[in-house]
Design a protein that fits this description.
Blueprint (H helix, E strand, L loop, with lengths): L4 E3 L24 E8 L2 E2 L2 E5 L10 H5 L2 E3 L2 E5 L5 E4 L1 H14 L7 H14 L11 E10 L12 E10 L7 E5 L17 H5 L2 H9 L4 E5 L7 E4 L2 E7 L3 E5 L9 H12 L3 E5 L3 H9 L3 E8 L3 E10 L2 E4 L7 H14 L10 E3 L1
Parallel strand pairs: 1-4, 10-11, 10-17, 14-15
Antiparallel strand pairs: 2-3, 2-4, 2-9, 5-8, 6-7, 6-8, 7-19, 8-9, 11-12, 12-13, 13-14, 13-16, 16-17, 17-18
The structure holds pyridoxal-5'-phosphate.
Length: about 350
């Protein structure tokens, strides 16, 4: 059954107000959004309308009990000037994994993909073309029952909106190994992109900032001896410029699509990649021996976020200069190159809109 989407285009585009050379991440929104509501056990008709405020009751359960999930993905312009997406089906699948964990209904592939593509097509002029930029896409779903009481909601809204973003070459960051707070532990929802997982990370990162760090490295909840992830990125450690270590998907960390793309590219290039439990002591001894040649986080927003120093038990371990990082520089230019059709898409990751 083909779905039809109601389209209500804006009468006054805001695109002339956007300075595409200076976009602050996450603050500028394209002209339209896609919305579809879930009620009486099914998804209703989807609608594209001007980006704007939504009304809701103060009692909606997402605000009180946190049934809220999201995704993050990007659109680019290909060699032919048309919009294209990077592995969007992976975001769709992960969205439903998050929904399932939070007791929320799954969305159909048709609704997710058609809503997404229709929206990107309508707002295609918002895709920046300057080197390093992209249109960031935020799909999300939240519980809308007008009811105070802890139980799964019967009503939900699914919305997608977009933000043009410039190149996001963050300067290399200093991270602190967190040994007091825990992001997720066995049986919790670490693998879900659930709003609450980010709420609980605010205080620990504020405390790390006070100590002069940009971000924290989460460790496992039981022993605090194994590294998990950092902020909203998955972690990679490079030993002697050829052995790549990354924590295994143990249910506590997010199954990053950038992480998976990096692993596939690295293996194809002939690197040894080990996905396993990684103890912080092991990483620190590699750093002490001068063998930790690269270390970075991976995620949709930055692609690669280089780590310049790791703080552990009061000591900062400094990593090689950012420009000299063979692995992370290669990964960044390969992935961004594939996304913008400048590098061959040998894994068929690009989907035309
Ligand atoms: C989104 C996210 C990532 C990165 O996932 P990508 O699919 O690569 O963007 C990693 N960790 C956390 C906690 C995240 O929320």
């Amino acid at each position: 059954m083909a779905i039809s989407i109601k389209i209500n285009k804006t009468q006054s585009s805001r695109i002339h107000l956007c300075d595409f050379d200076n976009i602050e991440f996450g603050k500028i929104f394209s002209d339209h959004m896609f919305r579809v509501d879930y009620k009486d056990g099914e998804w209703q008709k989807g609608e594209i309308s001007p980006y704007g405020e939504i009304s809701m009751a103060p009692s909606i359960s997402a605000l009180h009990y946190g049934q809220a999930i999201f995704e993050g993905m990007k659109a680019f312009k290909g060699a032919d000037g048309n919009p294209q997406l990077f592995r969007p089906l992976e975001n769709f699948k992960r969205f439903n994994i998050s929904a399932q964990r939070m007791g929320m209904p799954s969305i159909t592939e048709e609704l997710f993909m058609n809503g997404l593509k229709e929206l990107i097509n309508i707002d295609r002029n918002w895709i920046p073309t300057k080197e390093g930029s992209a249109l960031y896409i935020r799909p999300f779903m939240f519980a809308t029952d007008d009811f105070v009481g802890v139980r799964p909601s019967s009503n939900y809204s699914f919305i997608i909106f977009c933000c043009p973003v410039n190149s996001y070459y963050p300067k290399p960051i200093k991270v602190k190994v967190e040994q007091k707070y825990v992001r997720a532990s066995e049986g919790m929802a670490g693998y879900a992109k659930a709003a609450g997982n980010y709420g609980i990370s605010m205080l620990p990162s504020m405390e790390a900032k006070k100590l002069g760090y940009d971000q924290i490295i989460w460790t496992d909840g039981r022993t605090h001896e194994h590294v998990e992830e950092s902020g909203t990125t998955n972690l990679f450690f490079v030993v002697d410029d050829n052995l790549i270590l990354t924590p295994a998907l143990d249910g506590n960390i997010l199954q990053g699509i950038t992480r998976d793309s990096c692993i596939k590219l690295l293996k194809k290039e002939g690197y040894t990649v080990e996905e396993r439990k990684i103890s912080i002591k092991e990483i620190i001894s590699f750093a002490k021996e001068g063998r930790l040649t690269d270390c970075f986080g991976t995620g949709t927003a930055a692609i690669i976020a280089k780590i310049e120093a790791i703080g552990y038990e009061g000591e900062d371990y400094i990593l090689p200069e950012a420009d000299k990082r063979k692995v992370s520089n290669w990964l960044y230019s390969t992935i961004y190159g594939i996304q913008t059709s400048k590098v061959e898409d040998s894994f068929s990751w690009i989907e035309k809109v």
